[in-house]
Each structure stands twice: as structure tokens, then as C-alpha cells.
Amino acid sequence: MAGSIRVTMEVGADGVALITICNPPVNALHPIIIEGLKEKYAEALGRDDVKAIVLTGAAGKFCGGFDINVFSKVHETGDVSILPEMSFELVSNMMEDGKKPSVAAIQGLALGGGLELTMGCHARIATPEAQLGLPELTLGVIPGAGGTQRLPRLVGLPKAIEMMLQSKFITAKEGKERGFIDALCSPDELIKMSRSWALEIANYRKPWIRSLGRTDRLGSLSEARAVLSMARQQANKVAANMPQHQACLDVIEEGALYGGHAGVVKEAKVFKELVVSTTSRALVHAFFAQRSTTKVPGVTDIQLKPRNIRKVAVIGGGLMGSGIATALLVGNISVVLKEVNPQFLQRGQKTIAGNLEGLVKRGSLTKDKMSKAISLLKGALDYSDFKDVDMVIEAVIEKVPLKQSIFADIEKICPPHCILATNTSTIDLNVIGEKTNSQDRIIGAHFFSPAHIMPLLEIVRTEKTSPQAILDLITVGKIIKKIPIVVGNCTGFAVNRTFFPYTQGAQLLVSLGIDLFRIDRIISNFGMPMGPFQ
């Protein structure tokens, strides 16, 4: 493993040192990489045959950011000193203030510490689709290698605050429009163009710009104060219990008031404090937990291959059914929507069209993709179109006899490989499937409302559900950008099983005479989006 983690350097006849980060899959900044970057930079700066430096990442990706496993180690040991120092020694001293110019050659992605490396360079060349962002706040910390200072100096305060506080990515194409990227080019031209750009800086034909020294994008002090004060109010509204938001704004403000170097010093101090905070511990735990949900013993580790789910039937076009259909259509899966009469069917199709328009308005779907999604939808009033579906998802009201008769019917019509799924939130799956002979294909696909937006998908398995059916549903979950969590078949499954005591506890307090508005207020102050009674 350690052998594949390395930083390489090749010096060309043109006098450019090409330094490459290699740590598949996304070239994360493992401590070995940060050490390697310091070594290669020291060598390049010391060599007489090197005039300029180009920094890039192997295999079509620049760098996905800091290695989050190191945060876990800090949380286990409580020892902050194991965090490799990158901000002063590498980004500020060797790269930005080094006596030879550096150009970042960016493709794929440059996120977190990866983006901070590019900002320590004197120019940035990228492919148009590359993703740029500083998502550190989602892990309870702030950018720790100068990002809070250099990003506002490159794209202006409002955009920088949006990118950091909302962890919003931009494409390099937008980065070029905002002055962050100096030039765009195709992947084939990237290294060549970056080399010649670096040489032109070295020969004083292109400007040698140190991001930290720039103030032209920051605006006046009073403008900066106004922008920061607005951002503070906004952060208080949406993330009152997340200390990293206000801390990030404090650090940005320090730099706006006292200059970039003062800002970088404060950033390093605050970063170290936040890394050991309970918020960061919890968010890093959630980050790894979320990624482990798709690893299920006896399902994902037995060399099974997921089958291709091309066409799904959804029974019931109400709020839940139409939301589920929307999610599938956006994931490029054909949908047959089945209802009991033309009025209900039309209402379901209307709801789906409305959902898709809503996604376009939010900017998460293009007009073209919307038309494509609508073209994949077919309405039905009987089961004749179910002959070639790969999966059925039943989303009708919670009535046992109705669900049982639906499952008995579809078992006769659907192909033998078809997965028979139910969106029930509480009913025992063995009861739903007891009138069929297909218990190995019966599975719970419990979505949450609104189903085309909420990321959770609860996959319920019985003792008889086959590993293949579970694997296929996990795969569909990933395709439609859900977080699939496989749970057992019991009352309330996992989500409602934790939710019932929560509401029961609230009702118990009211029956003891406590004001229900007070309960809601305390719960929403704690950080829930709304109280149990609201």
C-alpha cells in the first residue's frame, strides 16, 4: 500500500520540474504525500537545472483533499501533533514565497487541501469540468492550509464564503469566469500548457502573483464587514449548533482586517482547536459510517455481481410513489407508474412533472435531463406492462390485505428475476409476502418523504431475502444517489424504531403537564429541524 503512495518529480529539458501526487483513487494528502511534496519542492528549489515547477495529480485527478483517516487517528489518540504541518512550511514558504514559480495543472478534482495547494501556486490551469471546492466544514473543521485567506483573495468574499460555508463546488469553467483559474484547456494539452505558462512566469513574460498578497478582490473594509455580518446571520439560522461556521468567518475576518499572514496564523490555531471538538468527532464518524453502509457481510463480499435494473414499476402514484418514480427517472431508469383509475394516474404524472420542475428550479437538474426523465415514464392502469420489469416498488396505503393481494398478483405477471419491493414503513414483510411463493425476492425499499430529495433509503431484508436482491437494491440506491442502509425485518425497522420512543417521550412529558411549545423549542434549539409536535 505505502509503495503506491508517493510523490514523483521529473525535470524536463525545458527546465520545468513536474511534481506529481500519486495516491489512488483520488490522490488524498496522506502524511507520506505531504512529506514527499516538501522533499520534492526542496529539491526543485535547490537544483540549478530547474527554472519553474508544475504541480499535478496522477491518473486524471489533481487531489481530493486531506486524508480523513488522519482525523480519526487524532480523535482516537487526542494527539493533534500527528497532523502533518502543511500551511506554513509547504504552501506559504516553499510554494508561494519560493524563488521559482509554480503552476497547478488541475483535472478531475481539486478539493480541500488539494485546492489549497493550487492556491499556493502562482497560476492555475485546468480542464473545464474539474470540480473545485473547500468542503472542510462538513467534517466540523475549517480549511487548514491557507484556504480561508487565499480563496476570498481570488474569487471575492461573497463567493468564497458560499463555497466554504455551504461546501459548494464549482467547475473550473466557472472558476475561470471568476478569476480563480487562469486558463482552460483539454486534458491532452494540460501539462504542455502548464509547463510553458510556468516558464513564462520565470522569464517575467507572465505575472508572478502571490495570492496571499492580493487585496484587489476583497473590496473595502466596510464592504467586507457588511458581507461577513450577513454571513454570520445566515450561519446562525442554518447552523446555530455548528461552531465551525462562525469560527470560519472569524478567521476570514482576521485576514480581511489584519492581512493574509495574520489570517493564516489564526487559521492554523483555530483549525487545531476544531479538529478535537465533539462536532468534528461526530461528523468524521458520520462520514465513515455513511461510506460503510454499502459494505454488507454475506452480500457485498461474496463475489456477486449486481444485475442491471433497467425498468422499474411503481404501484401507487401518491406523494410517496411519485417521489420514488421521480428519483428513478432522474437516475436514468425507466418507470411504469401504475394507478387504479385515470384521474389518480394523471395526478401522479402531474406530481412527477412538478417534482422534476422543482429540481430544475433548484439547479440540480438541467432542462435536457428533465425532458429525458419525462420520456422514460409510462403510465398504466393494469399489470400488462409488468412483463419485462426488473423490479416492482409498491407504494400504496398501509393496509395489509391490499398489499398482500398486490404481491400475489404481481408474482404471477412479473418475470422470475424481478425484485418485489415494498415501501412500507412499519408492516412486517413476512406478512406482506405470505401469500406468495417468492419470499427470496421480497424486500423492503423504504424511502422518506419527499422521496426524490431525502437521501436515506432503508433496505429491509427478511431471513429469506436473497443476497442478490439486496445487492441489486443497494446498487439502485447508489445510482439514484441515496444512502442505502440494510436493516432487519422487525417492528418499525431501524428509523421508525428509533423515532417511536422519541415521539412517545415527548407525549409522556406533555401528559406530565409540560408545555408542548417549550418541548418543541428545546428540541429545535438542540438542532432538530422541527420539534416532535410541530
From TrEMBL:
GO MF assignments: (3S)-3-hydroxyacyl-CoA dehydrogenase (NAD+) activity; 3-hydroxybutyryl-CoA epimerase activity; delta(3)-delta(2)-enoyl-CoA isomerase activity; enoyl-CoA hydratase activity; NAD+ binding
Cellular compartments per GO CC: peroxisome
Record PROSITE patterns: 3HCDH, ENOYL_COA_HYDRATASE
Domain 3-hydroxyacyl-CoA dehydrogenase NAD binding span(s) in chain numbering: 311-489
Assigned keywords, A-Z: Fatty acid metabolism, Isomerase, Lipid metabolism, Lyase, Multifunctional enzyme, NAD, Oxidoreductase, Peroxisome
Pathway: Lipid metabolism; fatty acid beta-oxidation
Pfam families: 3HCDH (PF00725), 3HCDH_N (PF02737), ECH_1 (PF00378)
Subcellular location: Peroxisome
Reaction(s) catalysed by this chain's protein: a (3Z)-enoyl-CoA = a 4-saturated (2E)-enoyl-CoA; (3S)-3-hydroxybutanoyl-CoA = (3R)-3-hydroxybutanoyl-CoA; a (3S)-3-hydroxyacyl-CoA = a (2E)-enoyl-CoA + H2O; a 4-saturated-(3S)-3-hydroxyacyl-CoA = a (3E)-enoyl-CoA + H2O
InterPro entries per record: 3-OHacyl-CoA_DH_CS, 3-OHacyl-CoA_DH_NAD-bd, 3HC_DH_C, 6-PGluconate_DH-like_C_sf, ClpP/crotonase-like_dom_sf, Enoyl-CoA_hyd/isom_CS, Enoyl-CoA_hydra/iso, NAD(P)-bd_dom_sf
Domain 3-hydroxyacyl-CoA dehydrogenase C-terminal residues, every copy: 492-534
The organism's place on the tree of life at top rank: Eukaryota
A single BP term in Gene Ontology: fatty acid beta-oxidation
Family: Belongs to the enoyl-CoA hydratase/isomerase family. In the central section; belongs to the 3-hydroxyacyl-CoA dehydrogenase family.
Protein name per UniProt: 3-hydroxyacyl-CoA dehydrogenase
Encoding gene (name): LOC125542670
